[in-house]
Amino acid sequence: MVSPAAPNTVHGNGVTAQRWAGILRELGHEVRTAQEYPGGRYAALIALHARKSADAIRAFRAENPRAPIVLALTGTDLYPDLRSTGVEPEVLDLASRIVVLQEHGRDQLDSARRERCRVILQSVPPIERRRPADGIVEVAQLAHIRAVKDPLRAAAAVRLLPPDSRVHVTHVGSVLDSDLAAAAREESATNPRYSWLGERTRAQALDVLARSRLLVLASQHEGGANVISEAIAAGVPVISSAIPGSIGLLGHDYPGYFPAGDTESLADLLAAAESDRDGFYTQLARRCRNLRHLVDPRREHAAWADLLAELSLT
């Protein structure tokens, strides 16, 4: 399995690769994980990220001409579209199967490639809720500091809330853009409703999520954010930008969307959730509870078993 993310990383693709490797081992397969193709004879290749793993895919095909390749398309492959993100058609055509992480990911493929595409939603075991922080309505934001995550949108939104609002955004995420990191440090120092904690371990990040009343995801693009699966597993309702990667997980009629980049709309949803205006928070919580079966690890396990059976890898 080739993933550009470093081993034991807290970045999304790395977390996905670690979980998939575990599933494949549970299915009885020997799995070697690497950031680059190490060479050798293998029964199959699973590659995350079409653009960054393109050289690995070509090298694998040259050494293993009959072995199947499973290519998982990430958010930076899929959006805004495959051409503009630099995904080469040749690499897509080398894949025996293409995996996307939510239903709308299929829409980015042409009809011929869509026939080889399978949707595998990311799973998370149940996460026990933690005792909420006293005196605030805590909103978790688990997003690394880079432009596509729109990391300061929630901080801007809470500045628009009424003076008596108790909403506080706790932001966990590592630095991938130094200029945005400087802005986040300044915002954290001057905005009493926003705290950026920097990078934390995955366990620490999930503790923040498990004690929070909401998760906010403000991204401009996502392939299928693992943090949404984590929130569902923890019973934490989600407010998200209305992007295909979130709609493909939460559903078209989910009530907790705001237009990407729209600070005022996000602020309005946060206010509505805090007060449960017209039952808004109650509705979010109910909808997320009803989605829990989608993130059941048994479901993802079965999806991989089915895909491997299609490729005669049993």
Give the SSE order as H and E letters: HEHEHHEHEEHEHEHEHEHEHHH
Count of folded domains: 2
Shape call: elongated
Total beta strand runs: 10
What is the overall number of helices? 13
CATH H level, superfamily name of the largest domain: Glycogen Phosphorylase B
Strand order of the largest sheet: 7-6-5-8-9-10
Organism: Haloechinothrix aidingensis
GO molecular function, one term: glycosyltransferase activity
Keywords: Transferase
Domain Glycosyl transferase family: 140-285
Summarize the structure in words:
The chain is an alpha/beta fold and 314 residues long. The chain has two domains: 12-123 and 296-310, Rossmann fold (3-Layer(aba) Sandwich); 137-294, Rossmann fold (3-Layer(aba) Sandwich), CATH 3.40.50. It contains 13 helices and ten strands. It has a six-stranded parallel beta sheet, sandwiched between helices. A four-stranded parallel beta sheet has the order 1-2-3-4, covered by helices on one side. Helix 11 crosses helix 12.
